[in-house]
Every structure is written in C-alpha cells, then in structure tokens.
Amino acid sequence: MSLIRVLLAIIFPPLAVVDKGCGSFLIVFILTCLGWIPGVIGALIILNKGA
Questions:
Q1: Each residue of 22-44: pLDDT tens digit?
Q2: Which of 27, 26, 21 is nearest to 42 (CA)?
Q3: 8: which residues sit within 8 A by CB, 6+ positions away?
C-alpha cells in the first residue's frame, strides 16, 4: 500500500480501488454514497488485502 494510494483513499475512495476490479469499485462507491467514512474504511481494507 503506497502513500499515494492511502491519500487517494482518504480523499476519494472509489478512485483508489479502480484497478482492483469492477466489484471492488462498486462496493467502495456504494459505501461512499452511504457515507464518506464507510467508503474510506472499505477502500483501505481492499488496498490492504492487495499488499
């Protein structure tokens, strides 16, 4: 997990996981629509699993 990805996950979570696949992007996008914090948490979890 790079520093740029972490900052991107905090600023705009769906953009941070766009290369992880369509499913990950959709999950993080829906979580972000429900609230910014769930989107950030979801993006960080997905980025951490890829590391």
A1: 999 999 999 999 999 999 999 99
A2: 27
A3: 15, 16
